[in-house]
Amino acid sequence: MTKEFLPTRYRLQSQATGASYDDTGWLLDPPGEQQPALLRAVYESSVLSLKGEEFGLYTFSDWLPIRRMLKGSSAPVSWHSKALGQHLGLENLYITFSGWWPERGAFMRTCSFKETEAFVVGGRLRGEPDEGVLVVASAGNTARSFAQVCSDNNIPLLLCVPHDNINALWFDNEINPCVKLIATPPGSDYFDAIQLSNIIAGLEGFFPEGGARNVARRDGMGTTFLAATTYIGQIPDYYFQAVGSGTGAIAAWEANQRLIADGRFGGNKSRLIVSQNEPFLPMYLAWKAGSRQLPKADDDTMRRQASAIMAAVLSNRKPPYGLAGGLFDALSDTNGKIFSVSNHEAHAASALFEKLEGIDIHPAAAVATASLINAVHQELIDPTATIMLNITGGGEKLFKSGINLHYLNPDLLLSPSMGTYEIARQLAALKW
User: CA torsion 202→207→208→214, rounded to 10°?
Assistant: First the structure.
């Protein structure tokens, strides 16, 4: 991009000890600390100054840990819902939409809020040849977003995706050869892809994106909350989102605290209402039990549960739930709640949203919408409260209409059980 930009100034703070660290380039964990904890970015600017629509997502760059801006970004868009709000009897329902809907000003070509992560993670990179190859594990939407963003900006990328999910890797153009795809075997799940990515990221020439541990990923996702609050003019009373890892809800919680410190949007903590898709419910069950620890379950059971849910992207078996600064702390601090949503409820919510609001939405967003409907039916919400519904993906049917799709095919099929030596041997055949 040609717009003048200076790297954002910030430090990183441990959520276990409060210790503060300089970002040495790709710091993912508090150095030398024993307790598992997330780092949080503490920005030099405590007041958010929007840069303007022409900057896309980087309009929020004051609170993004970036060294540069990449081309092609789009910010989430918000509006006051009349149709769905009236249907549910909610006076102040606001929808924040990340996807493709040009009529609304939404231009995310992968139709997912995972673009917010990819553009900020990529912006945190130096962009130098010696950085190596970024390694990302995904159940689908994240891989599509990182592939598109890295392809457009010539960032070397290796994706690890379950074979059964590679049909999610569709694009409106051919993907740059700087992006490579490794699939885990048929019948594997997201956890297998994560295990494989961890092995590869430990090899020379590769480095891990970091998932929830990467402040760039969380603060990219936090732009949904910033977009909603700056549009509404105040911090919402409630925040609704479906969760696989819970990272988006953690990001909203962190953004909320920055907005309180800003001082222009009120001082309330938005109550986090998150949801999981039955029967894959590890965080729901842990929260219901009042536990910081996820329930134990064998691998085969978790794979069966993951394969049975409508929203496949919500199937993270190792979410950042119990560590310091994780979802347990976010829910505890905001008097939050986790809903369990069935496939039937999610399908019904998806159809209702499209009928009333006029755009198709992704399964995970349908789970979030269903949880809002359930909360209203259970009379858990004041109908006059200000509510943010985070629609984390949508417009896919609209985007795909009238275009020729291109799919990313696997360069290799690898299993984490193959061992480091064999994985490294086969990867050596790939060239970036």
Answer: 130
